[in-house]
Design brief:
This protein is mostly helical. It has helices at 2-25, 43-53, 55-75, 92-122, 127-162, 169-210; strands spanning 31-33, 38-40. A hairpin with a 4-residue loop joins β1 and β2.
Length: 211
Amino acid sequence: MEKSRKDTRWMVSVALMAAIVILLANTPLGMIQLPIIKATTVHIPVIIGAVLLGPLAGAILGGVFGVCSMISNTVAPTLLSFAFSPFLAEDLIGALKTLWIAVGCRVLIGVVAGWLWIGLRKLRLSPWIALPVTGFVGSLTNTVFVMGSIYVLLASQYAAAKEVARGAVWGLIMTTVTASGIPEAIAAAVLVTALGRVLLVFFRKQMAAAC
C-alpha cells in the first residue's frame, strides 16, 4: 500500500514536471535574454526533475523535451532543423541520426544530472555546492552532446546549411559551445540552485507527511 502511494506520487510529480517542460518548450518562457544571446530554459525542469525524482524521471523529462524539440523543428523549421526532425531527413539512417540528436541527447541530460546528483550527495556535499554543479553539468550535457553529435553525424549537412567548408565545422561547433553553451550552463547553475533548494525542502516535507 505504501509503495503504491509512493509510486503514484512519483508519477504525478513526473507528469507535473513534464507539463512544465511542454509549457517552456512552446512559449517565450523557454528562452531568457542574456547580454549576448538568448539561452534556453527548457532543460531546467529536466535537471530539477532528475534531482528531485531520480535519473529515470530525468530521462523521461529529457525525452519530453526532445519530442517537443522534434515537433517544433518539424512544424516551424529553421536553418538547422534538419538536425532535429526525422521528417526532414533524406533517408532512414538520417532520420535515426536526427532522433538521437533531438531525443537521445536530451534523455542524457536527465540521466547525467540524476546520477551526478546522487554521486555528489553520497560525497556529502552541501546542496549549495551540489545543485549548481549539477545544473552546470546537466546544461553542458545538452550542448556538448547535441553539438558533438551534429559534428560527428551531420557535419556535411551542417556545413551546407551554414554555407562554409566542411573543415570549418569544428570551429563553428566550438564557437557555439563556448558562446552559447557556457552562458546557458551558468544560467542553469543559478536557476537550478535557486529553484532546487526550495523544492528540495518542499519534497522532503511532502515525503515526511506521507510516511
